[in-house]
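Hi,

I'm pasting everything inline rather than attaching a file, because the server keeps stripping attachments. The sequence lines come first, and each chain or strand is labelled.
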Amino acid sequence: MEQAIVKARPKPRNWRVILDYVFYVVLLAAAGGFIYYLYSYRLIIARYLPYLLQAAGLTIGLSVVSAILAIIFGFIGAMGRLSRFAPLRWLATVYVEVVRGTPILVQLLFWYFGIGELLSSLGFDPYNAAFSFMTLLQENSLVPIAFDAFFYGVIGLSFNYGAYLTEVFRTGIETVDKGQTEASLSLGLNSRQTMRHIILPQALRITLPPFTNYFITLIQDSALLSILGVTELEQTTGSFADPLLNSNDKLFMYILGAMIYFVICYALALVARYLEGRMGRAY
Amino acid sequence: MDIIAQNLPAFLIGARNTLIYCFVSFPLALLIGLILALMKGSPFAWLSTPSRIFIEVVRSTPIITQIFLLYYGIGAILANYDLAQYDNAWVAGIATLALNYAAYEAEVFRAGFLSVDRGQTEASLSLGLTPQQNFFRIVLPQAIPLMIPPFVNDFIYMLKDSAIVSVISGSELTSVLQLKVFQNPADPLPLFALAIVLYLVMSLPTSYVARTFERRLRAAL
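And the predicted assembly:
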C-alpha cells in the first residue's frame, strides 16, 4: 500500500518545462541589463532625445499628410478600376501595376530628381511657390529650406500608397454583397446614391483594418525621405550618429532612433489588431 | 535613346546584382523564418518568447533603420576589432534583407501550419506516428502548397526592397541609377524609365505566375 502511493506520485517535470523558469530569470536579467544600458547612456538621451522626438513628430505629420493624399489617390484609382469606361480602367490598372512593381525608393528619386528637375526647368518650383504664398500671409519664414524635398517626398509616398489603397478600396467595395446594390437600385436610388449611402459605408468598415496596416508601413517608409534630405526621424538620427567618435555611442544612437520607431509602430499595430478583431468583416 | 544605349550595360549589371541579393537573402530568410515559426509555435516560453520579440521588433522598425544599424552601428563596433572589412554593403545588405524577411516568412509559415486541419495531427498521432513524423510527413506536405503564393509575393517585395541597399552604396540597380542620375543631372528621365522598366520586367512576370498559381490552387481546394 505504502509503495503504491509512492509509485503514484507525479513524475518529475519535464526538463524543458524547468527551462521555462530559468528562462524567466534570464529574461528578467536581460530586461534589467537593457534598462541599465539605457541608464548608462542617460547623458546622450538627455541631450538628443528632445530633438529626436521633434523629428518623430515631423515623421508622424508627414505620414498623416501622405496618408490623406494616398486616400484621395486610392479612391480615384478604385473608382477608375471599377469604372465601366474601359480606358479609365486600363489607366488605373497601369497605375497600380507600375507603382506596385517598382521600389518606392526609385519612385521617390523619380519624383524628386526626375519630375522635380523637369518642372523646375519649366519654371515651377514648389519652394518659390510656397514662399511667395506665405509672403502674402506674411509668414514666409515658416517655409523650410528643404521644402522641395518635403513636397516631392510627400507626393511620392502618397502616390505609391495610393496604388496599394486602390486595391484595398476595390476589394472593399467588391466584398459588399451584390444584393445590397440590387436592393437599393430597386428601391429607386440612383447609382451615385447607392455608392454614397449603401456601398461606401459598408466598404469603409471592411477597409479600415488593412488601411491601418498600410498606415504603419507608410510611417516606416517615410524613413526613406531621409535620402532626399527631409529632416525626419531617420535623417536626424543619422546626422546625430555620424559625428559621434565613440563607436558605442554611435551604435546607441541608431538603437535609440529604432526604439522611437518601434514605440510608434507597435502602438499602431496593437490598434490595428484590435480593429481587425472588431471590424474586418462585412455585416 | 543614346543615353539609354550608353547606360544599359551598367543597368543590366545592377539588375543582375539585385537578383543576386534576392536569391541569396530569400533562402536565408526562409530558413530563419522556419526556425522562428517553429520556435513561436512551441509550448515552451524560452523558445516562443525570443522569437515573438524578434518578430515584433523587426516588423515595427523601418528596414532603412535596420540597415543603418547593421551597417554603420555594428560596423563602428567591428571597426574597434579590425573587422570592419567584413561589414561591407554585400554582407550588411544580405543580412538586413534576410533578417527582415525572416520575420514576415515566420508568420507565413505559422499561418500555413495552422491552416492544416487539427484532425490530421490527431489522426496521425493516434495512428502511432511520432510528433516529428507527424510534422514532416503529414503537416508540412499539406502546408507547403498553401504557403507558396505568399512566398512568391514576398519574393517580389524583396526584389523591390533590395533597392534599400543603395543607401549604403551597394551595387544593385537603384545604386547604379543614383550614380548615373548624379552623372547626368541634365537628362535624368530616360534613366528613370530604364530602371523602372527593368524592375517591372523582374517583378511583373513573377507576380502573374503567382496569381495564376494561386487561382488554380483555390480551384483545387
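The domain at 2-220 of chain B is CATH 1.10.3720.10 (MetI-like fold).

If the labels don't parse on your end, tell me and I'll reformat.
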